[in-house]
Every structure is written in C-alpha cells, then in structure tokens.
Write a structure and sequence with these properties.
The protein is α+β, with helices and mostly antiparallel strands. It is built from five helices and eight strands; from the N terminus they run βββαβααβββαβα.
Length: about 180
C-alpha cells in the first residue's frame, strides 16, 4: 500500500513504513543515499532506548531512564499485539518515537487505540515524521480491530494539539477528571 501526503510518499511493508520526499527516489533508490531521505518506522529495540531517552529529555527537560526501561519492558517486546512502541529512524539515527495501545471497554467505551507518547527531534520536525508514526500506529490499531484512536494532552500544549488536530483528531466524548492525593 502506498499512502501519499503533500511531497511525501509512504509504503506499508507489513509493520514497517518508509517515507521519502519523492516517489521516484523511493522507486529508484530504495536504500536511500545522498539524494533521498528515507525514514522508517519500526518497533523499538533495546538499542534504541538511549536515543529515545535523549529525545524525551530534550522535550521535557527531565531525564527518566527508569521510566523508559519500564515502558520498553511493557510495550517494546510486542508480546501483545495491542501494544506498540515504535521509533522513526533515519538510518541509525532515531528521530522520533510513538507509544500506544488498544484499551478495551474503559468505562463502557468500545475498544479504541490510545496514543500516550509522541515526540520528534526538533531538527526532524515539519518533515512528516510524526504523521508517518501516527499513520503506522493507526494501521496497527486497525489490524487489532479498532475503529478509533484517541490521545490525551495538556490543553496548553499548543504544538502537540496543533499536530493532532492537523491529523483530523477532534474532541472525544470523554472528560478527564483528577484530584490531588
């Protein structure tokens, strides 16, 4: 399957998607090289964690090594087909990550995909990396049989809010509640 967006083309090879700025470059130069930028989205490996942690630390200002190793243990092994920990790679460089899962019947809601972690290196933004990762995880959710994807974010996070809205996401029919402990 080929998915196209303005100036970007995606080829779905099972669970791995590849993006390049030109369909002809993808067809004539599938291995990349100096005249093509190829971003692949694939399952995260233990070797990717250092770069994932660095991307997250840059975005949040907090280094959370134990948190990321625990997430990898729960989501990176892909022992369950409803959990996804994916990275976007430009060769050996990790330029982004996305994490999500299918959640079943929370408070009566039918099963749906949930994205709960997404980040792209600032130097790789505006190149379609986040879109490619979201499309890849959504394809995984669809293969799991769900029809919707949701996320939760801080209302003052304009960058992430703008991205998800640009992908067609709108307010969900749920309300998040919290209390201090």
């Amino acid at each position: 399957m080929v998915i196209s967006y303005p100036n970007t083309y995606f080829v779905d090879n099972g669970f791995r998607m590849i993006a390049t700025k030109s369909a002809s470059k993808l067809a004539t130069n599938p291995g990349g090289g100096s005249d093509a930028t190829i971003i692949s989205v694939r399952s995260a490996t233990l070797q990717d964690l250092g770069q994932v942690i660095a991307i997250d630390t840059d975005a949040t200002g907090i280094e959370k090594v134990d948190y990321w190793y625990e997430l990898f243990h729960r989501y990176g092994s892909r022992t369950l087909k409803q959990r996804f920990f994916l990275v976007a790679a430009d060769g050996s460089e990790i330029v982004g990550f996305i994490i999500g899962e299918v959640r079943d019947w929370e408070f009566g809601s039918p099963p749906c995909g949930w994205v709960f972690g997404l980040s792209v290196k600032p130097s790789a933004r505006l190149g379609g990396v986040a879109t490619l990762m979201l499309e890849t995880i959504c394809a995984g959710f669809a293969r799991s049989g769900v029809k919707k994807v949701r996320t939760l974010l801080s209302r003052d996070n304009g960058l992430v809010m703008s991205f998800f809205r640009s992908q067609g996401m709108v307010a969900a029919p749920v309300i998040a509640l919290e209390r201090d402990l």
